[in-house]
Amino acid sequence: MSSLKDEKVFHEEGDGTVEDVDIIPSDLPVHLGEDVAYGPSGIAGVIQSPFVFAAALIASMGGFSFGYDQGVISIINVMDQFHDVFPYATSGFGKGFMTAMLEFGAFIGCFFMPWLADKISRKKAIFVVTIFFNVGAVLQTAAVNYEMLVLGRTIGGIGVGTLAMGAPLYISEIAPPNLRGTLLVLESISICLGVVVSFYITYGTRHMDGEIAFRLPLGLQMVSATIVGFGIFFFPYSPRWLALVGRNEDALANLSRMRRLPADDERVQTEYKGIVAEAQFQKTVLERRHPGKHGIRLEILTWLDLFSPNTWRRTVVGCGVAFFQQFSGINAFIYYAPTLFQSLGQSEQMALDMSGVFNILQFVAVCVCFFIIDRVGRRPLAIFGGLGGLVSWGIMAILVGLFSDNWKAHSAAGWGAVAMAFMFILTYGVSYSPLGWALPSEVFPTATRSKGVALSTATVWLCNFIIGLITPPMIENIGFGTYVFFACWCGLAAVWAFFLVPETKGKSLEQMDEVFGDNSGQEEREIMQATAAQVMRSGVPTQQV
Q1: Which segments cross the bilayer (predicted)?
Q2: Residue 473 resides in a domain
Q3: How much is the pLDDT for 244?
């Protein structure tokens, strides 16, 4: 590569003039948008950014739809009215297959969402996939046989998976660095809230006579998806997506609108330059990696880029946190909480009550994470969550192994196991529950972010599908071994986080190259610095919205 050391950089002055300055690309920061500060992190920063918060809140309601679909099946699975219409769902496999097909559909949906999000924008893609969600909800609500029910859950799953991917992607790209972690926790809060709401709706409708007991809660899932689909149009396009498609002036206008600052504000200009430089850098790198490639071939090659030497660690972090989020055992409880609590010695009614408390505790824990994630950081929470899960599942395994043959004679041990279940959900709620959605959305570079988030989200759904399918037979056949199984995975999660997860708090998306060390190669550094020079030379449009 030819040297760039003799090139000068020009930039616009505040009065509109252009000054020739003896700054060379090698003197420039690798990322122009680094260290942009818009205010405090956490709730104080959210109060100062109401517009971004509102946009993130609407987008995160896609997570509510996901959580609702998870929670609604928990009590429906033990309803006599449901079993009268769908008797095959009473068997271990029939129950697991019907439950898990939602996740299988979500897994499929993840692979067309990146193309859709890059082609028509993040926010329009969110609208489109709410249609899939509602079609699936209609089929589930009107199902007259097991096959129709499974088809509805599969189609609805396509909508769930794409919503769960699209929302964090959009949020990560509109949030300022000081609030990104906090706002991404909204996705997890919405998921937990959806679980709680759907659980108590079905808790109430289970006393109704006839099919309305399960059809009403199945139909209500359309409400939140419809709100997301139409509400998202009241908010701007992602500035980073606009920069990727060459609409730089629109990117600046939307960034100014979301930051509630003039377009010529120094912080807005700095962040804007960083966004444009990063987008141009990623395009340049893509052209150099795959010269002359177009269409399907380029699409396949860009997927393979996720496993290149410069990107594999990001992929390990994004997919790893998704894997351990599911293999922590969370959805064994979410889907089959009444069954699991009965296996811990509780009566049928008490198992339902404890399931409700379990879901509420997760919601509370995730809300706590909303306040602390940008202060504590991602890595310490990931290590803490793994160790907490190891201890909780391990003690449950010991108690179940020793006393499950006669819980009535050892009620204290049964309640001890319940306490460990509550300890697990509290540690999970402040760690892997939000991290599974937050980390993948912030670790990938602009040009591969939609595919990276898609692959991470697909990992969530594939693992979710596996857990939903295997949990009922595991509980029936290996007893306390089920708890040992999840304890081991939580222990591995702590080891993985300690050795492979870097700290990303307070970093802009454009700084992630430095966090992961991807940009240490001299050629890529020179490309980025040359791109920074080009962006500064071209100046920043200053029209306001």
Answers
A1: 51-76, 96-116, 125-144, 150-171, 183-203, 218-237, 316-336, 356-374, 381-403, 415-440, 452-471, 483-502
A2: yes
A3: 87
